[in-house]
Amino acid sequence: MAKTKKEGYLSAKESRRISKENRKITNALEKKRKRKNVPESEYLTEMHDRNNAVEFDNLHTYFFTDTGVVKSVDSVTFDIPIGKTVGVVGESGCGKSVTSLSLMQLLQRPQGQVVEGEIRLNLGDKAYDIAKIPYEKMLELRGNVISMIFQEPMTALNPVFRIGAQLGEVIELHDGNGKDKEYVKKRTIELLEMVGIANSEGVYKMFPHELSGGMRQRVMIAIALACNPRIIIADEPTTALDVTIQAQVLDLLRNLKDKINSSIMFITHDLGVIAEMADYVVVMYAGRIIEKGTAEDIFYHPAHPYTIGLMESKPVVGKDVEKLYSIPGKVPNPVDMPNYCYFKDRCEKCVKKCDGEYPTEISLSPTHKVSCYLYDGVDADAAREVNKTERLDETEGER
After folding, report:
1. What is the DSSP string of 220-259?
2. Which helix (H) or strand (E) holds 341?
3. Residue 44, strand partner residues
4. Which residues of the chain have pLDDT under 50?
5. What is the pLDDT of residue 397?
6. CA–CA dist 237, 245 (Å, integer)
7. Is 39 helix (H, G, I), strand (E, B) or coil?
8. What angle do CA 266, 272, 276 make, to 5 degrees?
9. CB-side exposure of 376: number of CA atoms within 13 Å?
10. Residues 6+ apart with CB under 8 A from 122
11. I need a surface site. Which of 325, 334, 343, 359 has the fewest CB within 10 A?
């Protein structure tokens, strides 16, 4: 009796074949990336709108694994305006952090690669395409122009160095030309005080494990803001903090952003934080943007069934329910994504067109865009009214 191939099983021979093919692709990309003395003309570009700090345009970031190619970010396009906060929201694994790491050029290479698209960075007098910029040039931009507050401060901070040494290193590397140690120490203590640490002299001499979670997060913010960057990436900076400290950190970020006139890319899965912080919201699902708009568009007029599901799944003060809503089903396999809408198998509002190819982006208003067949050829105001009526009916039913 012949052996049948198990569903979802990958043989060693097939894995080696995939690995060999992936190595060819990644070696070619790495060879191009590691070139020396790359002329500036190769990565110079033009901003589509000079009022934007960053423009993601058709970004594709893939991870080449032994089981196949994971399309972590697949055709992502959105802007971060100067002086504004853009919230990127979605469940774990949807591509939020990978999008930010693509901007910082901190992907785990050679497996992780930006294979297509542009990331246009506005430097005022000129603009660079981060997807093409060489590593040596990126070292100059990272920290000075773009900075990142990492998700977990205990793993981002080095446990064997004191806080003063770690914060001072950033200043010496980017802003320390011709400056003595006294200046670096003074600037370090100023930054600690700026982020609300009262005992700045004492914290300067401490190790990370001697600080609380909130204090460590403040140190991470101080490191990120050391050189007054144009763009701050905050990757879930309040996830591990209690509500009181979370509110303090959000206030701190908001005030510092206005003080140094920076733009913030705020990554989180907490819709409450997004509502408080963001001017614009981008909703991601399975590596793609399924809806984007102003905070008012997304919170008062959610259009995509996934966004509506996220809204329904959060607890509301004064709303008496036995069980919170949960979106049914699961995310498709990232190595073998379907050619139709990625949310189709979990959607409760499917129409006949959903069996076709992935939906294109539809404009519901000048600021509000959604990728869903529910709005194909439908008047935007009528679609919003239908969504509003359905949500009110569901709320009344729960009561």
Report:
1. HHHHHHTT--SEEEEESTTTTS-HHHHHHHHHHHHHHHHH
2. none
3. 128
4. 1-5, 392-399
5. 46
6. 11
7. coil
8. 65
9. 14
10. 47, 50, 52, 53, 54, 55, 82, 230
11. 325
What local confidence, expressed as pLDDT, does residue 4 receive? 45
Euclidean distance between CA atoms 314 and 325, whole angstroms: 8
Output the six-digit token pair for 270. Answer: 């907490």
Contact, 193 vs 244, CB < 8 A? Answer: no
C-alpha to C-alpha distance for 298 and 285, rounded to whole angstroms: 15
DSSP H/E element including 264: strand 263-268
Do the beta carbons of residue 340 and residue 356 sit within 8 Å?
Answer: yes
Cα dihedral value 227, 151, 99, 121, nearest 10 = -10
Classify residue 178 by its DSSP letter: T
Cα 191 to Cα 229: distance, rounded to the nearest angstrom: 14
Count of other CB atoms within 10 angstroms of residue 322: 5
Lookup: tokens for 72: 């972590």
User: Strand order of the sheet with strand 85-89?
Assistant: 146-149, 231-235, 263-268, 85-89, 280-285, 288-294, 369-370, 362-363
pLDDT tens digits, 139-184: 889 988 999 998 888 888 999 999 999 999 988 888 767 678 888 9
Spatial separation of the C-alpha atoms in residues 188 and 177, rounded to whole Å: 15
Strands 263-268 and 85-89: parallel
Tokens standing for 28? 């070619």
CA 296-298-300 angle, to 5 degrees, is: 60
Find residue 149's DSSP bridge partners: 234
pLDDT tens track for 192-220: 988 888 889 999 999 999 998 888 988 99
Residue with tokens 């869903």: 372
Name the pairing type of β-strands 127-129 and 44-45: antiparallel
Which amino acid, one-letter code, is at 75?
Answer: S
My answer on whether omega of the bond before 315 falls inside 30° of 0, hence cis, is: no
Contacts of 88 (CB under 8 A, 6+ apart): 96, 99, 100, 265, 266, 267, 268, 282, 284
* DSSP string computed for 63-112: EEETTEEEEEEEEEEEEEETT-EEEEE-STTSSHHHHHHHHHT---TTTE
Domain boundaries, the chain: 300-398
pTM of the complete model = 0.87
